[in-house]
Amino acid sequence: MASLSSYLFSTLSKVGSIGGSGIPDFHYTIGDKIEAFAGKGIWDVHHSTRTNDAKQEATVFVLAKARGSSYTAVAQNTLKRMRTLRHPGILRYLEGAETAEAVYIATEPVTPLTQALDVDKSDELKQWGLYKIAETMRFINEDCKLIHANLSAASVFVTKAGEWKLGGLELVDSPTPAIATGGSSSQQQQAYRYYTGVIPGYSARMAPELEGQKWDVVEKAKPGAVDGWYLACLVHEVYNGGLRSASQLQSQGQIPATLWALCQRLLMPDLRRRMSPSEFLQTASRQGGFLDSEFIKASIFLENIAVKEEDEKAAFFSGLDALIPGFPQAFSKFKILPELLKLMEFGGGDAKVLSGIIQIGKGLDEQEYNDLVTPAIVQLFSSNDRALRFSLLEYMDSFIQAIPSAVVSKRVFPNFVTGFLDTAPAIREATVKASLAIAPKLGQKTLNSDLVKQLVRLVADPEPGIRTNALICIGKLCTAKEGVLGLDGDGVSESSHRYVICPALLQAFRDPFPPVRSASLAVSTACASKWEAPEIARRVIPCLSPLLIDGEKPVRTAALKCLNAMVSRVEAYSQTLPDTMAKKVVAPANASATVPAGQASGSAQAEAAASMAASDTWGGWAVSSLSSTFSGALSLASSSLPIGQQQPQMQQPLSTPIAAEVSGSEKSKVFASATLSKPAAAAASGTSGSGWEFNDDAWGNDDPVGKGWDDNDDEDGWNPHVLSTESSTPAAIAATAATTTSSSYTLSAGPKSGGMTMSSTQQRPLLQPTAAPAGSSMPAAFKASLKLAGSTANNTRKPATGEPGSTTTTTTPRRKGLGAMKLGGGGASKNTPPSNLDDFF
C-alpha cells in the first residue's frame, strides 16, 4: 500500500510539473489540490487556470490510471458523460484529455458541497440547491433516459454564485442493456451494476434494488424511481451531515417538517410507490410546500426572464429591491447581478433594474465592483435610450464613487456632459442634479472649463426649475472647499468665480421667477467671501438694492441677508485702506509763504480728511473739504470787500420756489449782479451763511471722476442758488483783476442773448490750462472755463459794460447737476429775456 501511494504521488508530481503543456489538447494548468475533497470521491480535485489566460479560473479533476482498471473505467465513463450531457444544472465541462498515465477533466471553477456547507449554511441556498439538483435529475431521468445512481454530497459542487451543480457521473448509465449487432442481448455492462465498489462510502446509501441486484425491476421501473432514493440521501447529508449507514435515513434530525414528509416518500422500498425527483419537484413547489418561497420564485424568474412578458417584468422588478436584502450575498453577487446587467445591456431594464444593480453593488469590495459593475455602467452611459440615461443620472450618487476617477474623466464624463444639451427638460434637470455627484471625480481643468461653464449656461435655460437648480448646484460647488462636497483639488477656481459665475449671479438677480432670484441671493450670500470688495461696492450692491423692495417676501429676506454679508465684506476691506490717498505737502521753515495752487489743494484735502475723522458731524467736514477743493482755483468777487464786512447774500434751494416777488427791473438788477461766491468764509464758521445748505445733499460722498465732479452732480451738494448781491461795477471788477491771480466769474444778463451769460475777467498768462497736481481735485466747471479761456483767441470778442475790451462773453456750458436750471428762460424763445427768476431754477 505504501508503494502504491508513493507511485501515485510520483505520478501526480509529474502531472503538476507538466502544468498542462505536456498534455495533448489540454490547456489548463494543475494547481493546488483541494484537500477538503480528499477521500470523498475517486478524483483528486485541483485549482487551475487556463495556460494562456491566468484570469480564467477552472477546476481540474485528475484520476491516475495506476489505481486500477475499475477506476479507469469509471473515469472514462465520467469523461464520456461530461462531454455529451449539457445542462445548466450539470457541472460545466471545459476540456478533457486522457493519457497513458491519467484522465483529466477541466470544469468551471467550483467548490465541493461538503466544504461550501461549512462556510455558508443559508437555508435559502439549501432550498435553491435542492431545487436545482431535483430539476437536473429530472432532465437525466426523463429526457435522457438515464440513471445517475451516485447522487450524494460528494457528487455536488457549488459555484461562486452559490448554485449547486451536479457531478459524480461515474455510474451514469441506461437502465436498458445494450443490444448486440446480431440481435442478441450483449453482456450487460452498466456502470452502476459493476463499479459501485470503487465509490467511497457507497454501501451506506446504496438503493435496496441495486443492493439486491433486482435488475429486471430496475429496468421496468418508472424513470427516476431509483434516483429518488439517492435524492433522499442527499437531503439527509445536507441537513444532518455525513451518512454512515442506511439506518440513519430513518431519522429526521434537522430536516424541516415539510421536507421530511417528502423524504419519507422518496425512501419507499417499493419502486412503484417511490417518489421520483420530478414528482418531488412538483410536490415541493406547491403553495405552502418546501420550495414555495420568494427567493426560489425570484431565482426562477431571472433564469427565464427572456421569455417573460413586459407586464410580468415590471411587476417583478417593482418588488425586487425589497427582496435583495434577504438573498444570500454570494447568490446576489454572482447570480442575480449578472442577469440584471445582461438585461440592462440589451435594453430590457429600467430604473428598477438599475436600482437592483446598485443595491447589490453596495455589498461588493472595490475589486469586485470594478470587475463586475464598472464595465457595464460605463457601457450604459453610451446608450441613446433616454429612459436608461435618466435612470443612470437619477442613481448617479449611488455608484459613481466606486468608479475610478480616471475612468470617470475619460469614459463617463464625455457622455454625461451631453445631458446639458439634451432637448428633454427632464434629462437636463437630472444632469444638473447629478453634477454634484460626479464633480469630486473630475480634475481641476475639467471642473472649471467644462462642468462650471455648462451649469452657468443653464442659468439662462427656458425652464425656471432648471435655472433654480443650476444656481443651487453652482453654489454648492463654490463652497466645496468648506467641506460641502469634498473635492480633491481646490474646487472652483478664483478666475471661474470672478469671470464666469459672478456675471451669471448678477443676471439672475433680475430673473422674473422668484425662486431663481432667491437662489441667486442665497448663492451670493454663501460666496460673499469670494467676491472682491471693490466689485461688491461697484457692481453687486447697486444690483442688489432693488431686491430689498421685491414683491416677494422670501426674496426680500434673502436680499437683506445678502446685503448684510456684502456690507460686512466691504466694511472689513475699508478698514485696511489708508485715511486718505492724497499726499500732504509740508512746507520747509525757510520756504516762501506762497505755495503753488496744486500743492495747496492736495494738502488741504489731506487736512480735510483728517478733520472728518475727528468731527462728530459730517457737515463740518463737508464744508472743509469743499473749501479745500476750491482753494487756489477760484477767487470770487467778494474778496474785494474789506475784511470783516458781511456780504449780503440770497440763498434759495432748488426744491423751493422764491418766496418774494420782485419787480421786473429789480429782477434784472439782481440777476445782473449775481456772482458765484467763494465759500471760504463758511469753512470757518460751519454755518449756512456762506451759501451752502448742509442738509440738502450728501456732499463729500461722491467719488471724483477725472479729478473733478462725477456725473452725479445733482447729488453732490452743490447749490447753484447761492447768489451774491455784490456790486459788479467795472471799477470793482478791474480792482479785482488787479489784486488777484485767479479769475472772477460774474453772472449777467446779456443785452441780446436774452439769457444768462458768464463774464470772465481773466489774466491771459494765468488762464492757460495746466496739469493738476497728483491727488488734487479740480471742479469740472473750472476745467470747462479753462478750456473756454484757451479757445477764445479766435472768437469774436464783445466788450462788456464797464470793462474796456478785456472781457470775453461766452455762453456757460450747462452742468448736468443743474437739472432745474433752464438757460434762456422756461417756455420762452431763445432770445426772449426771462420774466421770472423761477425760469432759471
Short summary:
GO terms for molecular function: ATP binding; protein kinase activity. This protein is α+β, with helices and mostly antiparallel strands and 841 residues long.
Q: Give a count of the beta strands, DSSP E runs of length 2 or more.
A: 12
Sheet with the most strands: spatial strand order: 1-2-4-3
Strand content: 5-15%
- Helix percentage range: 40-55%
Helix/strand/pairing category: alpha+beta
Which of globular, elongated, flat, extended, rod-shaped describes the shape? elongated
Spatial gap, N to C terminus: 132 Å
Radius of gyration: 52 Å
- State the domain count: 5
- Number of helix segments? 33
Describe the sheet with the most strands. Answer: 4 strands, antiparallel
Summed over residues and divided by their number, the pLDDT gives a mean of 73
Pick out the low-confidence regions.
1-21, 180-187, 612-841
Helix-strand layout with pairing:
Layout: H1 2-18, E1 44-50, E2 53-64, H2 69-84, E3 93-98, E4 102-107, E5 111-112, H3 113-119, H4 123-143, E6 156-158, E7 164-166, H5 191-194, H6 208-211, H7 215-220, H8 225-240, H9 257-266, H10 277-284, H11 294-303, H12 310-318, H13 320-323, H14 329-345, H15 351-361, H16 366-372, H17 374-381, H18 386-394, H19 396-399, H20 405-416, H21 425-438, H22 444-457, H23 464-478, H24 494-508, H25 514-526, H26 533-544, H27 553-574, H28 597-614, H29 618-630, E8 649-650, H30 664-672, H31 680-685, E9 723-724, H32 730-739, E10 744-749, E11 756-761, H33 780-790, E12 807-810
Antiparallel strand pairs: 1-2, 2-4, 3-4, 5-6, 6-7, 8-9, 10-11, 11-12
Helix pairs in contact: 4-8, 4-10, 9-10, 14-15, 18-21, 21-23, 22-24, 23-25, 24-25, 25-27, 26-27, 28-29
